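note to self: dont lose this again. the chain is below, predicted strucutre after it. 94 aa total, dont forget to put it in the shared folder this time
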Amino acid sequence: MPWEAAARVPLSAEATRRKRAAIGCFASQLRPRGPQRTGEDRALVAALRAQGRRVLRASSLPVVTSARRRYRAPAGFGHHLTTLGGTGSLAGAP
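---
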């Protein structure tokens, strides 16, 4: 659902405080981690490896992706999904 079509629900001061605190826990997912518009996942893996950290890649771990039909990163995973077939590109679709 596009943000502009979503209903606005008034929140109490306490609910607003709790919501802001919860959002703060996901800051790395809400704000870019660097100047690039795409590839930040690859940059994160490269940075972890550069520090000598292990990166687990396992096909047995399911991943849930966004249902967003308008992808933000020009060469990101959302764009990749539109190339896998089906009814064609979803970019620009509601």
